[in-house]
Write a structure and sequence with these properties.
With 308 residues, the protein is α/β, with parallel strands linked by helices. Helices cover 48% and strands 16% of the residues. The protein has helices at 2-26, 30-44, 50-61, 67-88, 111-122, 139-146, 161-172, 185-194, 225-232, 271-288, 302-307; strands spanning 107-109, 127-131, 151-155, 177-180, 198-202, 206-215, 218-222, 237-244, 251-255. It is globular.
Length: 308
């Protein structure tokens, strides 16, 4: 009994701590505090075990880059993560470009992206939308909600219950409908697609039970939920990403054209081939802005290398 009670106490403490931290960050303007949190993480990050993970993965992904270039990318990653930490407390305060209401904004997009987004919003058809841990990966759901896209964003609930509640409170206030991953989530998501809704999810992390794909020329595994849903409800697949701008505080959103899925001899969507197509899009994104991707998460595993 002591251990469950102790865990419950620690969870509650973590939850209260998270609420207090987020509340404190909200008292300070994001543009003022983000450079400070970026500075802090640039100094603390190299002391963490994730520094070695990031360096090893970067060296393997970019063998042509010099050690100095690798270290600059890692420093940029920590800088970006520090800014994300500050930005999270202010998610509901980001201003999204709106052609009908001109003025200062935090998130812009090209006319091509707006036209694609407008079509998604008005064509009455379902669609799957993938993204990756680039720049601030929470923002695509915010943009969708700001422009009235009927969408569900899939997220992974944090392990600590109290902290999870605090995080959900921040997200749900600005990001529309959210759905935590669970055993019955695929059924609910397939039903939502059948009713013409849109589903958004992150797909760039390693999935132990995922399908084999190649990322930066190395074998890894990708969560196949996106492709399995596409096979169940044949619908368009789009990619969306945020690009942090040189000022460090504004973003450009990009929505791709529909990514053609791979198909088998019978014309049905091939799950593995489709996830490879999606993974290749993400690789192109990461190559363009490597310092904005989350290299600290282990993307490759030795067992996959041995199988190849």
């Amino acid at each position: 009994m002591a251990r469950p009670r102790g865990k419950a106490f620690l969870d509650a403490l973590a939850g209260h701590g998270t609420v207090a931290l987020l509340g404190g960050l909200r008292l300070i303007d994001r543009r003022r505090i983000a450079p400070g949190t970026a500075w802090l993480l640039r100094r603390v990050g190299p002391l963490l075990k994730e520094q070695k993970i990031a360096r090893a993965q970067l060296v393997a992904a970019f063998p042509e880059k010099s050690p100095d270039e690798i270290e600059r990318i890692i420093a940029g990653m920590w800088d970006n993560l520090g800014r994300v930490a500050a930005e999270f407390a202010h998610m509901d305060r980001f201003r999204v470009e709106d052609p009908d209401n001109p003025g200062p904004v935090d998130i812009t997009y090209s006319p091509e992206t707006f036209d694609r987004f407008h079509q998604l919003r008005t064509d009455g058809k379902p669609a799957l939308i993938f993204t990756a841990h680039l720049a601030n990966w929470e923002l695509p759901a915010l943009v969708a909600a700001a422009h009235g896209l009927d969408a569900i964003s899939v997220y992974r609930r944090p392990n600590i219950g109290g902290a999870a509640d605090a995080v959900l409170a921040i997200r749900s206030g600005a990001m529309g409908e959210l759905m935590a991953t669970s055993m019955d989530a695929p059924v609910k998501l397939a039903d939502a697609l059948a009713r013409g809704r849109h589903i958004g999810m992150l797909v760039d992390q390693y999935a132990l039970r995922g399908v084999p794909v190649t990322f930066f020329g190395r074998p890894t595994r990708a969560n196949a939920l996106l492709a399995r849903l596409a096979r169940h409800v044949d619908c368009p697949i789009h990619g969306v990403r945020m690009i942090r701008q040189p000022d460090g505080r504004t973003f450009r959103a990009e929505l791709t054209e529909a990514v053609p899925p791979a198909r088998d001899a019978d014309g049905a969507i091939d799950v593995q081939g489709t996830m490879q197509a999606v993974t290749s899009v993400i690789e192109d994104w990461v190559r363009e802005y490597p310092e904005q991707w989350l290299w600290a998460h282990r993307r490759w595993r030795p067992e996959d290398e041995r199988r190849s």
